Amino acid sequence: MEFVRSSGPGGQNVNKVATAVELRFDAANSPSLPPDLKSRLIKIAGRRVTGEGVLIIEARRFRTQEKNRGDAIERLTGLIRKAAVEPVKRRRTKPTFQSKEERIKGKKRRSRIKELRKPLSHAAE
After folding, report:
1. CA torsion angle for 88, 90, 93, 98 (degrees, to 10)?
2. Rounded distance between C-alpha atoms, residue 123 and residue 125, angstroms
3. How far is CA 7 from CA 20, 21, 59, 67, 70, in A?
4. Domain architecture of the chain: domains with CATH
5. pLDDT confidence of 2, banded at 50, 70, 90?
6. By the 8 A CB rule, do 42 and 49 touch?
């Protein structure tokens, strides 16, 4: 964790006290995380991860270091919890007979509408 000066309201205090927290977590090289969880965490974190796999969380919501530190840790644990949930594998299913029928009916209906837009042919001439 590194403390930096925060932007925003705070009067003279904002220029003197480093209240914002920059939490860095080396997700790619963490020995405590299993490989599949690491990859999901990096994917979920998106732009917050550097090229080396370091997750950076900036917390500057509050005016005190303690609250910002707690916020940063809370956000990191939230991301890890979210990554810990394995996504359910999608099972391929075939379309039902009813859904196929509905699709074909819709196509025929649309075809009929377009057919009616055409001018009548002059076959009688």
Report:
1. 80
2. 6
3. 8, 12, 11, 16, 19
4. 2-84 (3.30.160.20)
5. low
6. yes
Per-residue tokens: 119: 């001018």
> What are the strands, taking DSSP E only, across the chain?
2-4, 20-26, 54-59
CB atoms within 10 A of CB 89: 5
Please state whether the predicted TM-score (pTM) of the whole model is above 0.90: no
Nearest-angstrom CA–CA distance, 1 and 56 = 10
Query: Would you state the pLDDT for residue 124?
Result: 55
How many helices and strands, by DSSP H and E, does the chain display? 4, 3
Closest by CA to 55, choosing from 30, 80, 26, 20, is 26
